[in-house]
Amino acid sequence: MTRPKIFADIAAPVTDKRPVSDTRHGITRVDEYAWLRADNWQEVFRDPSVLDADIRSHLEAENTYQAELMADTVELRKALFAEMKGRIKEDDSSVPMKDGPFAYGSSFKKGGEQLRYFRIPSEGGPEEIILDGDKEAEGHAYFRLGGIDHSSDHKRLIWAFDDKGSEFYTLRVRDIGSGAELDDVVGDTGGSGTWDAANTGFFYTRLDPNHRPSKVFYHGLGTDAAADRLVYEETDPGFFMNVGGTRSNEWIMISISDHETSEYRLFPATDPLAAPKLVAAREIGLQYDLEEGGDIFFVLTNADGAKDFKIMTAPVSDPARSNWKELVAHEPGRLILSVVGFKDFMVRLERKEGLPRIVVHERATGAEHLISFPEEAFSLGLSGSYEYDTDTMRFSYSSMTTPSQLFDYNMRTRERTLLKTQEVPSGHNIEDYVTRRLMAPAPDGELVPISLIHHRDTPLDGTAPCLLYGYGSYGMTIPASFNTNCLSLVDRGFVYAIAHIRGGKDKGYAWYEDGKRATKVNTFTDFIASAHHLVAERYTAHERIVAQGGSAGGMLMGAVANMAPEAFAGIIAEVPFVDVLTTMLDDTLPLTPPEWPEWGNPIASEADYKTIVAYSPYDNVAEVDYPPILAVAGLTDPRVTYWEPAKWAARLRERKSGNSPVLFKINMDSGHAGASGRFSRLEEVAFNYAFALKVAGRA
Length: 699
Hints:
The protein is of the alpha+beta class and about 700 residues long. The protein is about 20% helix and about 35% strand.
């Protein structure tokens, strides 16, 4: 296609070249922009002010450049922001969930950026604010709350916050009655704490300097955090850990996993000094999750070739793998996603034929029933319960046209009670919109699901612009759920589409396996095939498709830009993981060793090296006519470090042909998730959508 001139002629920042060579497996690569990686990156994550002056100057020049190119969209961005804000109920509140004498929930106050947490007496009474996020965020350029956990005696609250965006969370303990903070303060944690049964202390994970949750500690209330007892240390840098408790308050569970192997260790919550007991030793490729079940544990596992998972039971007295017994057999093509146990029931969330399902299992009889839903494409979520001995579970439902609905469901009587429907204050008429599910043929014959929404009045003759979103990694599925933000595009004539590409689990575990490591290229060709199918079906045209993805989805954006630049009018890559090979070769970075099962280990394996270098976006930038590209990043992001998109932008400008610009926008006060406030985040979305509208000719 001949690309129209959209952006003003403004000189882009010129990035110094300081070549660094690296030779592995007899192959030498040269990186001219490696200097953008700060040598003191660990310090920068904690204190951005220590960033090298040359790097800071370059990043600020990038921000100046993108601001100048997008200056003509200022009023559009204001309008988009106002629209998206108008669809949010500013004083929204969750439906409180019962836990004994109280019910706990969260809410926003009008104009508030952060959540407030509250409780009310279960039998009715006044609301009590137990944590006000807006108050805690005062004076911080960035502030994000982490986990919140009230004690079983309802007297105290563990809460966590990150005020840098680096995801090093500080834990604090609050006396709920008085609102006073205790002297117990623990830094550098994973973001949550779990009470022991007596509420005299709590367990947490501590992050090492490389941002790995490598140790579980126990902190006794009123003691010095420096003297906290080490409960368990994971010495393999390829594994992450988490610690949590069961709703019955009987067990503390330490879960250890990478992307294909898992392991559990557990001990009674009544005995915080007990040594954690191994359930089943890690075996490469063996995955299992534990869920409480009274005198048994429910075990969700892929053991014995159960690729799409099955459910076993194990006695709590000895839950070793040799004692596991089958409860729900493996069924190929039915992927069991999660399990929630109750005293008399067990509930599972599964996906079959690309759609989620909730199945209720009665423990006494083994009888099962399915909760049914009418729409063509939709999203489900299990909210579970604070309580274990109850007949009531909670779930959410939405579709791309239907606002989120929250239900309480009586598992015994099968009565469904609607508790809340998401309010859209500015108005939302479901009949104005159409949602569809298409199947795009991939080059190898597989059919790739596409979920989409468009306005009923949008002409489907190839003239509509389209935003095509994709992810396709880690087995994550992008749900076909309600998204008020995308309506600002849809109401302007866009088709908003989600490509459910390989690398996710949309069509079972095999769908994930066919989009990782040696087969990773399927992720990219599936996305390109989705674009082609939307054009073939007259939903849009290639010169009107804007592709969007974030993190690993940002890597997808870089790959498809290299492979099929002619298929897209623009690319939006948020916190893009584009320098895959360099990162996977650097085992000092926070996520690298745990990522090797997903991408391969190019340090140890020449084959993995060659696989990654063949698609890594940064390594495959070429002299082609790229569409306009917007890369977005956060300075303190520990997941996708800022220098990846910074280097990518520089190399794109150096090597590309054509006149399309490369914009790099970096938030100097945030990390991987972008701005922390609900409204400040909308400003970022408005910027991205303004870019999409601009390159699609609808600004």
